[in-house]
Write a structure and sequence with these properties.
Length: 542
């Protein structure tokens, strides 16, 4: 019995202890729940406090904005409401006085509160389904077809207009084929040592500057008979062929031969061989060799006949020196009509004739520079002609080089001569640049103008034989009119022509004291001083 009682007691004790442990666990759980609820409550309180703070802040900001708005509105309304004053006349009319309104009194002042603008609803456009539904309606279909038709009609109209403009526009004239010797002036050197130590060095230096060198291989270089005599001409011509082959292989770009009228008529077969050696060496325009002939013939018909019979590329003659201004127009017209300008060459001085300044005088250097640069063909100058170098007892004077060092210490006559050389050089450079870039001067046709209606600036009328005027005309480019007066007094030329505009712009005048370049001038009354010349640019006009 005692054993069983003991067992029961122990079970009761164990049950009691189990209940106690469960109660403890329950208490712990309740404590945790309480702590969790407390934390949540504190978080919610903090959140609520933050929300209240933000709301108060927003309310405060809104209140301030509304107050500022109201103050602004009140200020604007008060500015519009100004006190009005009026005059009250006395009943008896004896006196009048202005009675101001009582302080604070307003004349029809009404406080109006302007409501805020109601925000308009924004149009968001049609949805895809609505757009498709509307696009298929007959009205929109007809509209699209009409707009498409208008587009194509407009495009075809513009295309047709462009085609009509192109067809009606005058075609640009293609420049004629020109060799390198037609592009710029030829410059004759009498003394190689004035420019280089020897001929090979000079040839190399010339080619580095993209220039060309023509060698004078006239057999009797310094004699009166270029080919010695008719008896020895055959032998000399045979020997010349080997010399031509040698120098052409050395790189010279052409050959000049004097007395071509004699050799071409006395030994025509040998002359044909000489021409073949030089002219048939290359067909490329840039590397083609030039054959320059020299003749003492001076009339226009003789020069034209020799140019045709000799077959030279260029012919230097005494035409400009023998004919004189009185016959220039006739000779120019003859040569230009009989030969292309690519075969014409113009010169005044030369190896045997001397320098330009010695032939025409220092005052005529600029005038004849203008003449040579503006004639249709290739201008040929002797060395030193660009500065007005004069012969000094010989036709091969020493070349003068003006440098800043040499100009120091000059005075009197030497200073004047140096200034004149610089002036001639400036005119030469201006004309050379114009001829290089102006199509009218490079390829233009020659249009002779008659200065017969010119009148003298003095009481005595100048002879028309001392006057010359012509225009260079090329396609739609600017025209250039050159006028020369070799008379002893100034003249007023009437150079009007249907192909020329009546007014132009002065480009160059050999008279430095006359009009400045860029001055507008009238071709109907062009004043040219005695012994002077002018170059005028005339715009193209239909």
């Amino acid at each position: 019995m005692s054993t069983e009682g003991t067992d029961v007691d122990m079970k009761e004790v164990q049950l009691t202890e189990g209940k106690q442990e469960k109660e403890k666990e329950t208490e712990l759980t309740e404590e945790k729940d309480n702590e969790t609820e407390t934390e949540l409550t504190e978080a919610e309180q903090e959140k609520t406090e933050l929300t209240e703070v933000e709301q108060e802040k927003e309310e405060t900001e809104l209140t301030e904005v509304e107050q500022e708005k109201e103050e602004t509105e009140l200020t604007e309304v008060e500015q519009e409401k100004q006190p009005m004053t009026g005059g009250v006349e006395a009943a008896n009319g004896d006196a009048a006085s202005a009675t101001p309104l009582a302080a604070g009194e307003r004349n029809g002042a009404v406080s109006v509160k302007i409501p805020d603008e109601v925000q308009k609803e924004q149009f968001t456009g049609l949805s895809k389904e609505e757009l498709l539904r509307v696009a298929g309606t007959p009205g929109w279909v007809r509209t699209r077809c009409a707009l498409l038709a208008l587009f194509w009609l407009g495009w075809l109209g513009m295309l047709a207009g462009a085609v009509i403009i192109i067809l009606q526009a005058p075609r640009c004239r293609a420049p004629p084929p020109a060799s390198w010797w037609n592009q710029g002036p030829l410059y004759q050197i009498g003394d190689v040592h004035a420019f280089s130590e020897n001929l090979p060095d000079l040839l190399q230096a010339v080619h580095k500057k993209n220039m060309f060198l023509v060698l004078d291989l006239t057999p009797n270089y310094n004699g009166d008979q270029p080919w010695f005599s008719n008896i020895t001409m055959t032998t000399v011509a045979e020997e010349l062929k080997s010399a031509l082959m040698f120098w052409l292989q050395q790189g010279v770009d052409g050959v000049q031969l004097g007395g071509v009228d004699q050799v071409s008529s006395v030994v025509p077969s040998l002359w044909a061989d000489i021409r073949a050696i030089v002219q048939n060496r290359s067909q490329d325009i840039d590397s083609k060799k030039v054959l320059v002939g020299v003749s003492s013939q001076g009339s226009g018909p003789e020069v034209s006949s020799l140019l045709e019979s000799s077959g030279v590329d260029l012919l230097l003659s005494d035409l400009l020196r023998s004919d004189g201004p009185a016959h220039y127009s006739r000779s120019l017209s003859l040569l230009r009509s009989a030969h292309p300008q690519s075969r014409l060459a113009w010169n005044l001085g030369g190896r045997s004739q001397g320098h330009l300044a010695s032939l025409v005088g220092s005052a005529g250097v600029k005038v004849h520079q203008l003449l040579l640069f503006t004639l249709p063909g290739t201008p040929v100058f002797n060395y030193g002609d660009e500065i007005g170098l004069r012969d000094q007892g010989t036709t091969f004077p020493t070349m003068l080089w003006d440098t800043p060092e040499s100009e120091q210490g000059l005075n009197g006559t030497a200073k004047e001569e140096q200034e004149e050389r610089a002036s001639c050089l400036q005119v030469f450079k201006t004309l050379a640049d114009l001829r290089e870039r102006e199509l009218a001067l490079l390829y233009g046709d020659l249009l002779l103008l008659s200065p017969s209606n010119s009148s003298s600036s003095s009481s005595n009328s100048s002879s028309s034989s001392s006057l010359l005027a012509y225009a260079r005309v090329w396609d739609q480019s600017d025209r250039y009119v050159a006028a020369f007066n070799w008379a002893g007094e100034g003249v007023t030329m009437d150079l009007s022509h249907p192909l020329l505009a009546r007014e132009g712009v002065l480009v160059l005048s050999t008279d430095g004291s006359a009009l400045a370049p860029g001055t507008p001038v009238s071709l109907g009354a062009l004043e040219v001083g005695p012994g002077q010349a002018m170059l005028v640019k005339v715009p193209y006009s239909r």
